[in-house]
Amino acid sequence: MNKKKKESHKRNKKELTDLESSSDSENELNKNNSRKDFSVPILLQESEEWLIEPFQNKKVNLNQLQQTHTFKETFYDNESCYHISVCCDENDEYYLFSILDDTDDENDEIIIQKHGFNKSELFRIPRSDIKVPFTRKLFCMSYSDQALLTTHDDLFKNVEMSYDVDKEELDEILKMEEYFNKKQYKIGVMYIGEGQTTSKQYLSNTESSQDFEDFLEILGDKIELHGWDKYTGGLDVSEHTCGDHSIYTEYEGFEIMFHISTWLPFKPKDPEQVLKKKHLGNDLVIVVFVDGETKFDPKTFLSHQLHLIIAIQPVIHEKKKKYRVEISRKNYIKEFEPYLPDPPLFELEDLRDFLITKAIKGERVISTSGKFLQRYLTMRKEVLTQIFTGEVDY
Questions:
Q1: Is residue 263 within 8 Å of residue 233, measured between CB atoms?
Q2: Could you say which of 1.10.357.10, 3.40.640.10, 3.40.50.11210, 3.40.50.1580 is the CATH number of the domain covering 50-65+182-370?
Q3: pLDDT tens-digit map of 139-176
Q4: Residue whose C-alpha is closest to residue 131's, from 116, 115, 117, 152
Q5: How far apart are CA 4 and CA 65, in angstroms?
Q6: Does the global pTM surpass 0.85?
């Protein structure tokens, strides 16, 4: 090989080596950038069963828990309210109407809640819309229930019969209507260390990191379980079988007990950690704290109850400690607010509001989905049928 060919061969070989080196560097750079690109989900593994919630360039709306009307406050505890049960032959569906007739109402309207097999609806009827027959006016009588209920087409067109509802029956209606308005929630919190990918590893953790401990502090108060006299979230408060401590908080009128995976007792002779699974495996919502770069696959933590996962990872962004958040839900659970911002980064002090609001709202949405919805609709039908016919025993 002449001198020119040798030099050309060396040059080509060097260029090829430089190109390979450049390619490796570029791949590594892309890998690192994917970790820094906070618009790309990296914490949760998506699957056919589990959907990852997209990030949205919208203002985070945390005003999701306020309710302007509840059955208990508007009707059940109100002396100006009365209740009647009626039957419609067209579809054999029984209805109960809760009627708030407050003469001091400044809007001069009557508020009615219609309880049916599938849903409850709220109506506001102006008194001026109610037709009072001349004969009733002649004897200074007010409108009849039938006149009231037939004022609005969506209320009831064909009132067959009606009668008052007694206290026991009203209590059943209260249980039915407050099903979605509960004030107490339990939320799981599971710590995942660097490189951990199995349920056995997750549940074997008895120690964590300082980042995780800092995170727990913003969730609520560390309480001693023994003798605890508020909401327990199913934890034992007398025999120490669930450990010594947990995290409890009150938020906008709600009570929340957190099930902390590293604080629940670890049993060395039990590879399945049944006690931990008893609580974490029965939570509808779990917060997964990911320490490190390992991706969490929801399929690695088997639970029929788990429907919403909120994954949290401490990161450094612009030289500040932030918390990256990603969310995964079962594929039949509809999307709900508050949505994740883009990028999904939170200061530690802001994280609590978003997390608790998302978890509570999530439980409400889950309760109206899949098997939970069917269970609820069955309960509604049984309650209303029992009130009208007495044929269903509880």
A1: no
A2: 3.40.50.11210
A3: 666 666 767 777 776 676 665 666 778 889 999 999 99
A4: 152
A5: 79
A6: no
